[in-house]
Amino acid sequence: MRVLIWAYMAAAYAFIFLPVLVLVVFSFQDGRLPVPPFQGFTLRWYGSVLGNAKLMSALGNSLLVAVVSSSLALILGFLAAHALARVRLPGSVLLRGLLIAPMTVSYLIIALGLLTVFNQTGVRLSLWTAGIGHVVINLPLCFAITYAAMGDQQRSAERAARDLGASDWQVLVHVSAPMLAPALAAAFFLSVTFSWDEFIIAFLLTRFDVTLPVEIWSMLRSGLSPATNAVGALVFLVSTALVVVLELTLFRKAKP
């Protein structure tokens, strides 16, 4: 039985990480195409990527959109979750359903709807419009994670703070938010990840200043290249390093 368990785990991890391993290996390919056979080791594709001004600009744009949109989605999601969890409102179940509804809608439909709204209102497409789209898709995620983390322990602490004279905003900032820090951090970094990788909304709602996925798509239009593998490898390594650092610091401290 133990052998079957280990075999299943090995197969699952291979299924998940084998494509990434192939991508990383062929980012060092000393040839024009990232395909077998492996023709030798080189770092020139990483030098090409790091020296590409358009690619670095797209990378900065992705970071800007991901951080700003995720921060806004987290704030709005946290406030909505706190309100619906602590105050009995008419139709609160319906309100929760409406907040989570965008998670069930295709990104293409959301992007087309926003594109129509922006065109009708005369709003120029830019990184800001892409950021608005990312807030729309990430706010339900932040709301769902934060709402699920709220319990009686937080409610009792909030009531005690009010009894001691704290205002509603003081309770929110100094009691509720710190007690929900692990959930808020998880919601924020998941939102950053989704925004970082998102293509359809970024493609339809930007024009000249594009994000990294859109720039990679433009590179792929000219054919496969180890340079695109190098971009993917760098993004994967940075994301993995971030997750490891968070696990060793913030999330480990949150464990009882």
UniProtKB/TrEMBL annotation:
Domain ABC transmembrane type-1: 59-246
Localization in the cell: Cell membrane
UniProt entry keywords in alphabetical sequence: Cell membrane, Membrane, Transmembrane, Transmembrane helix, Transport
Membrane-traversing stretches: 7-28, 58-81, 93-115, 127-150, 171-196, 230-251
Topology class, membrane: Multi-pass membrane protein
Family, per entry: Belongs to the binding-protein-dependent transport system permease family. CysTW subfamily.
Protein name: ABC transporter permease
Organism: Pseudotabrizicola sediminis
Record lineage: Bacteria, Pseudomonadati, Pseudomonadota, Alphaproteobacteria, Rhodobacterales
